[in-house]
Design a protein that fits this description.
Number of domains: 2
CATH architecture of the largest domain: Orthogonal Bundle
Structural class: mainly alpha
CATH superfamily of the largest domain: UbiA prenyltransferase
Pfam family, one: UbiA
CATH class of the largest domain: Mainly Alpha
Keywords: Cell membrane, Heme biosynthesis, Membrane, Transferase, Transmembrane, Transmembrane helix
Mean pLDDT: 86
Strand content: under 5%
Order of helices and strands: HHHHHHHHHHHHHHHHH
Radius of gyration: 26 Å
Low-confidence stretches: 1-21, 311-347
Function: Converts heme B (protoheme IX) to heme O by substitution of the vinyl group on carbon 2 of heme B porphyrin ring with a hydroxyethyl farnesyl side group.
Protein name: Protoheme IX farnesyltransferase
Distance between the termini: 92 Å
Subcellular location: Cell membrane
Number of strands: 0
Length: 347
């Protein structure tokens, strides 16, 4: 039984009993709408941006900012599933999502997405500042309107341009702490932006029939395997170079430098092997897809560790400076006291 027949049966089943299924939803169905794995990645990269900022927020404000960003990422996922419900129903990879199965109605998903998105933007504005809130609102709108509703169904460059939305969380995190946008979070933005095409094209290579059946013009569908693998190799090279920027510009230290060198070489090797592979073999594309997830987490974790150590050193130096200043200020007072008591040993 092929993917189309499975999707067709699911569609017929949903058509027969849409209301009865929608009346039996549970919390896990609504959680699934938020794309928890994608949300976790967005939250992690935003937290790295927030933690690397020169301004330190108090723990309560940090928690509020992270939760608001998580809600925004979840809202984008819900609205994406609401709009894409028609093509999700005919793709085997997405046919088991709550809306195609009829567990949640499209209207309920739309309401949830709008409420969650509005709440996230307002909460981030109240907890931090308007710059961060505007960036979060822009990321949600770009992902839902520009990528989901327009680019995804109209151009093979959909994932290249649309990747900008997924690359914004570290910039949002930085802005939440500082109220502005700096060069450092833009370097992190560039890494995610360059990472997105090889990551998703590696997935799409093994889902070509799915995307073709749904009418989504992913690069493997409209340009073929050889063009896609070559583009993956090119973007992997750009990613390896772009990932060096935080270290080259002095934003990160030795831990990040070593991590990016090793992971970048492995990423390039897997992309090269994929480009040299023969069509029916699905393993090279799957290996690159899986490693790409590890790659992004490893780089951002190394960046966070480097900045954590630097922050600790800055804190210690700051405390040492305060202590020295206090002792220096007290010296004249101690000297006068010793002179009055005629006890020079106190000096």
């Amino acid at each position: 039984m092929n993917a189309k027949s499975i999707a067709g049966q699911l569609g017929e089943r949903r058509a027969r009993t849409p209301h009865s299924l929608a009346d039996h939803w549970n919390v896990s169905d609504f959680v699934a709408l938020t794309k928890p794995r994608v949300m976790m990645l967005a939250v992690f990269t935003a937290l790295v941006g927030l933690s690397s900022a020169p301004v330190r927020l108090d723990p309560l404000t940090t928690l509020a900012a992270v939760l608001a960003i998580a809600a925004g990422a979840g809202a984008a996922g819900v609205l994406n599933m609401w709009y894409d419900a028609d093509i999700d129903a005919v793709m085997s990879r997405t046919a088991m999502r709550p809306i195609p199965l009829g567990k949640i109605s499209r209207f309920a998903a739309l309401v949830l997405g709008l409420l969650l998105g509005g709440f996230s933007v307002v909460a981030l504005a109240l907890a931090t500042n308007l710059v961060a809130a505007a960036l979060l609102a822009g990321a949600i709108l770009f992902y839902v309107v520009v990528y989901t509703a327009w680019l995804k169904r109209s151009t093979r460059q959909n994932i290249v341009i649309g990747g900008a939305a997924g690359a914004l969380p570290p910039v949002i995190g930085w802005a939440a702490a500082t109220g502005d946008i700096g060069l450092e979070p833009l370097a992190l933005f560039l890494i995610i932006f360059l990472w997105t095409p090889p990551h998703f094209w590696a997935l799409a290579l093994n889902r070509t029939e799915d995307y073709a059946g749904a009418g989504v013009p992913m690069l493997p569908v409209v340009a073929g395997r050889s063009v896609t693998t070559r583009q993956i190799l090119i973007y992997s090279g750009l990613l390896a170079l772009g990932s060096e920027l935080p270290w080259a510009l002095g934003f990160a230290g030795v831990i990040y430098g070593v991590t990016v060198a090793i992971c970048g070489a492995l990423f390039l090797m897997l992309a090269f092997l994929l480009d040299r592979s023969i069509g029916p073999d699905r393993r090279p594309a799957h290996r690159l897809f899986v490693f790409s997830i590890f790659y992004l987490f490893a780089l951002f974790a190394a960046f966070l560790v480097d900045h954590g150590g630097e922050s600790f050193r800055r804190t210690r130096a700051s405390h040492a400076g305060i202590a020295t200043s206090v002792h220096a200020d007290r010296l004249p007072e101690v000297a006068r006291s010793a002179w009055r008591t005629n006890n020079p040993r106190e000096l």
